[in-house]
Amino acid sequence: FNLANLSLDGTVKVRELYLPKFKHNMPEKVALLFGENAWLTAESSFSASRDGLLAAAGKITYQPQQEKNTAVIIDPANAAARGAISYKISFDKEKIHLEHLDFRAGEFSLQGQGSFSRFAKDPKVAFSIQTGEFLVGKTKEYPPLALFPEQAHDLVGKVFKNGTLQVNTLNFDGTLEQLNNLSDPKNLALVD
């Protein structure tokens, strides 16, 4: 028996986790993804090895709080309040690799992949995303787009006053600081 070859594989299942109970322990951006009164259900398989490699893949579904055994009429304007995320992610000693992301909320969809350098003062960020159609004036209301910096929403609003937009491919390769400061033309040039 050799401990150096020890690995761990398993599955994690979460049924109806009420997020507001944990709001003091979660980053503020989580509420932007799932809303303030969301219930989460998740199932994820994972594997970990002693050398620091960790991989996980699964699905998370979320919906707003509602009382049990009651009829609910879904408001199409609030359809983004319920959705699903499928993902495949891996961690090594230096990077987080988002190998696959499929986010669906109401009629909105986003697919992507990317990476994030760990343990750096100004981490390196690289990603590529594609979306389905979304309303230009409501970019802040679409869960994954809500994570983008305010300058990105302002830029979309200035360039495209109204209507719908679909992103066939959006790439970014730079640092977290550059992503958070897209109003600087040098940083905006990193978006392809």
Topology:
Blueprint: E1 7-18, H1 29-34, E2 38-49, E3 54-64, E4 83-91, E5 95-105, E6 108-117, E7 124-131, E8 134-135, H2 150-159, E9 164-165, E10 170-175, H3 176-180, H4 185-188
Describe the structure.
The protein is mainly beta and 192 residues long. The model has no long low-confidence stretch (mean pLDDT 84). The protein has helices at residues 29-34, 150-159, 176-180, 185-188, and strands at 7-18, 38-49, 54-64, 83-91, 95-105, 108-117, 124-131, 134-135, 164-165, 170-175. Strands 1-2-3-4-5-6-7-10 form an eight-stranded antiparallel β-sheet. The chain has a two-stranded antiparallel sheet with strand order 8-9. The relative contact order is 0.11. It has four helices and ten strands.
Helical residues, percent: 10-25%
Largest sheet: 8 strands, antiparallel
Strand order across the biggest sheet? Answer: 1-2-3-4-5-6-7-10
Mean pLDDT: 84
Inertia-based shape: globular
Proportion in β-strands: 35-45%
* Radius of gyration (Å): 19 Å
Structural class computed from helices and strand pairing: mainly beta
- The total beta strand count reads 10
Number of helices: 4
Order of helices and strands: EHEEEEEEEHEEHH
Q: Unreliable runs, pLDDT <50, ≥5 residues?
A: none
N-C termini distance: 51 Å
Features of the shown structure:
single chain, 192 residues, mainly beta, eight-stranded antiparallel beta sheet, 4 helices, 10 strands, globular
